[in-house]
User: Fold this.
Amino acid sequence: MWVPKYVRDAKKGVDSPIPTQEVSNEEFIPRPQNEKQRQVEDLIGTCGEENAKKLGMQRRDFMRTSMGMATAFLAMNAVHGDQIDVDPVEALEPEASAEKFPKGEYFIIDDQGHYSSNFERGIPGPGGMGMGNLRGMPFMREAGLDSAVTAEGTSFHNFIKEMFFDSETSMLVLAGLEDYEKQRDEDGNVLQDWERSTLGMASWNMSRRKKDINAMAGSQRVLSQANCAPNHYWDKQRNRPDYPALYEQMEREVNLYEADSWKWYCHTDPAKSGTGYQLDDEWAAAFYEYSRKLGQKIFCIHKGFASMSRTMGGLANPKDVEKAALENPDLTFVIYHSGLKAIPGIPSASSAEIRKSMDFDPATGDFEWHNVLMDIKRRNPQIDNVYCELGSSFGLLALLDPILCQHFMGKNIKYFGADHVVWGTDCIWWGSPQWMIDYMKRFQISDELCEKFGYAKITKEDKAKIFGENAARIWGIDLEEKREALPADAIEQFKTSYEMAGGQRSNAAYGWVRAEA
Assistant:
């Protein structure tokens, strides 16, 4: 059975500023907690309790400070070796972290944010991403999801709190899912809102929430995506897209919803067309051509993390990126998860076994499917319209084995360059993204790996590009203008009031983990 991570932690008395095992958003099967992760978890609890007592604080309050975060990173170093830039003094003096890693140092745009609509609809349970169509799939039924828990954790209002109040995120992209909207009822009347789709991240709902947040803030804080894809409206007699219906929906998503990009899942079939699609096939080509006419040229593509589809999972392999990028140089392709396959494996205390379970080759530093994306760039250095996004892949690897995370980032930057890697977290499922932000601030690739595999050290300039500058270039955001506008907007004022009133991170992760016996 799978249970939400925060439910598991509450039962075990765990209070940690970082998740202590893999957390799934229902796009992949989470591994059980391995021995090293248990060691980290135990150390966080023990050291957190000791440090809190030294400072005369309650452990709960301590764990929500920068000192609690430093304590967690020190625990990771104790288990995995000194892989994270953290000093012991940071666990006892908040000024130490504030001086070394000041807040606001980077303009952060999270390219992959999610919430669920279950709470506002009165449906119990976090609902994953509200992916009702996925719940009927075999691997989801076999997971035995425990939905008898509150839906408020993944709600829209908690999403705002976790993403904006409890982290340094400045802007975010509401990332779409494999959903399509029903266009008309039996009488031919055009449907609206919930009648079109009840998915929490349906295109119409993302558009609504984007406009809600931006209106509340008085400035642009959120971008949204459109879920429409080549196989969403299907002519079954001709076995091809129903182009009139498809183009109608495309027009609606661009003109009415004002979507800022498309979001595709090539390996899913929500409309029951009987097939998936590829970025380089004729159906995608027709979509590209009509999208150009509508003025939308940004395509965010889910690649990797294919557990959700047993029959079409191979379509999540990024091999089709090559031809699509070469034949469409005017389009931008943001490859979500950087194509990391992330097949679930059996955990072990052995680093070799953990790495094997990730389809990792220690001789080359390659991950399966991720290496396909890297090879595309290596063969075609002229490709300039493909970006590697980090959502879930970065956080998963950081918690599983920091060395794997260094290989992952090292390859992305070596082949695509720091100017073609974009920040994304897949939160709210991992909780507030602040732990990933702090990890990235402290992140570095070891001298040993740089020498052996030809990786480069990551500079502050590189991190500034990854955190926000690259996404700003993709979406045409003037960062200087935004830096001036945000301090005066309503969200920043609410955040200040929240902090002055003693508001704290929940330290809760809302995605799924395997229940323990």
